[in-house]
Each structure stands twice: as structure tokens, then as C-alpha cells.
TrEMBL record:
Gene3D superfamilies cross-referenced by the UniProt entry: 3.60.21.10
Pfam families: Metallophos_2
Protein name: Serine/threonine protein phosphatase
Calcineurin-like phosphoesterase domain: residues covered: 4-190
Domain of life the protein comes from: Bacteria
Span of the signal peptide: none
Length: 244
């Protein structure tokens, strides 16, 4: 059996990514794909980009990776841009929208948020019809390939798997900013990689404990803007935009 590790929403959190990569290495997995949002909210977007370029066989663009490269007057975004530098910003600008491959006779498609764009959000409790739309070809995904049987995405920072007869939708959760459980989250696909022949296939959602207080200390040491809500999110897995 072949194994593919899928990580997403790293958000500048070095301790979380290091713990996740250590677990991937322990499982002897060498093929890693990243579903975007390498940068913000945490302090080390620059190091995360460098690490992903070293270890990931493919990376798609997330919403943060998209708007971080644009001109802005927002102080928080400018702070992250300055630490990334021109070369890394250009790398983010060139990231593709999707990764497609065959595994155990299934067409697998990976993207950050949805088949529509990096900003069109699909939540776990959305209607079935909205979930099924994730399997369609669009201008964003490209229209010249078969529609997928399996779709994996990130963006919502909450991991789940849903089955619709032969179609499977899964979310890998977030490595650096999980909003369901206070542990880093990623997925492992098991099957015959690059094979169109039907074979055994499985999806595993993995949780990895990491040093949350170290991640918070690193952000504090960098005098990172919006530090307090970031620290609270890491400690509680509760999104800062939710009403108390």
C-alpha cells in the first residue's frame, strides 16, 4: 500500500508543523501534499513556506496565500508581508488551485476551500447539495479532466469525512490553527497511488499533540499583531469571530 499525507492551514505555526512532520516521518510516509494557507495567523510564515518547499510534493493556494500577495493598508497583513519577503510572496502567487491524481481506481482532487474559489467556504453542516457540488468541474478546477470520486480540502479548520455512495468528501482540518480540537490535524490516504485499478482505499484523520504554549511564546516574542486572539484560538480551538 502507498500512503499520502495531506496537511493544510499551517498558518505560521512552527511547533505544530514540526510535530506533524515528525509523526508523518514516524509512519514512513514520504509523499506530502499541502492544501494551502501556509501564512498568517502565526508569527513564522517565512519559515513555514521554506519548510513546505522542502518537504511537500505539491502545494495549492489558500485564501491567505492569495490575499497576502496583494497591496494592502492593513497593518497586520503588512507585518506578515515584510517577514515573507519578495521571493516567498512570488512563490505564493504562483501556487496552483488543485492537485489531481488517481489512487486505487479513484480520481482524487485536492483544493483549499471549494470547487469555486479559495474564498467560497463549504462547512461540515452545509446542505448535502452544497457538498455534492464539490465534485463538479469548474473554471477554477479546470474542465478538461474527469470529475473526482474523492475530494479533500482544508479552509474550515475542522476535520471530517462524508460519503455519498461512491463519492467521498473529507476535510483534513488544520495543522497550525485547529478549531475543533486543540491538536494539529492532518489526513493520510492509503491505497495504490497513481493507479486506475480498483483496490483497497482508506482515509485516516490524524491528531497530533504539540506544544501550544511554545507556539504562543514564539508569537509573543515576535510582538506579533493580533497576538491575544491568536493565543486564545490555539488554547481553546474557538474561532475569534464567534460571539461569546
Amino acid at each position: 500500500m502507498d500512503h499520502v499525507a495531506i496537511i493544510s492551514d499551517l498558518h505560521g505555526n512552527i511547533p505544530a508543523l514540526e510535530a506533524t512532520l515528525q509523526d508523518i516521518k514516524r509512519r514512513h510516509i514520504s509523499r506530502i501534499f499541502c492544501l494551502g494557507d501556509l501564512v498568517g495567523k502565526g508569527p513564522h510564515s517565512d519559515k513555514i513556506v521554506d519548510m513546505c518547499q522542502d518537504v511537500c510534493g505539491g502545494t495549492v493556494k489558500g485564501n491567505w496565500d492569495d490575499f497576502i500577495v496583494r497591496e494592502t493598508d492593513k497593518p497586520t497583513i503588512i507585518w506578515h508581508q515584510q517577514r515573507l519577503g519578495a521571493e516567498r510572496l512570488e512563490y505564493l502567487r504562483q501556487l496552483p488551485h488543485t492537485i489531481d491524481f488517481w489512487m486505487s481506481g479513484r480520481r482524487v482532487r485536492l483544493f483549499h476551500a471549494s470547487q469555486e474559489s479559495v474564498y467560497y467556504r463549504v462547512r461540515m453542516d452545509d446542505p448535502r447539495e452544497k457538498h455534492l457540488e464539490m465534485f463538479t468541474n469548474t473554471d477554477f478546477t479546470g474542465t478538461d479532466t474527469p470529475e473526482p470520486d474523492v475530494v479533500g480540502y482544508g479552509d474550515i479548520h475542522r476535520a471530517y469525512v462524508a460519503n455519498f455512495q461512491r463519492q467521498t468528501l473529507f476535510n483534513v482540518g488544520s495543522v497550525g490553527n485547529p478549531l475543533d480540537i486543540t491538536q494539529a490535524s492532518y489526513a493520510v490516504l492509503e491505497g495504490a497511488y497513481d493507479s486506475r485499478r480498483e483496490d483497497i482505499f482508506s482515509i485516516h484523520l490524524i491528531r497530533v499533540p504539540y506544544d501550544i504554549e511554545l507556539a504562543i511564546q514564539q508569537a509573543d516574542a515576535e510582538n506579533m499583531p493580533e497576538f491575544a486572539p491568536y493565543a486564545n484560538e490555539l488554547r481553546t480551538a474557538r474561532y475569534r469571530g464567534l460571539a461569546v
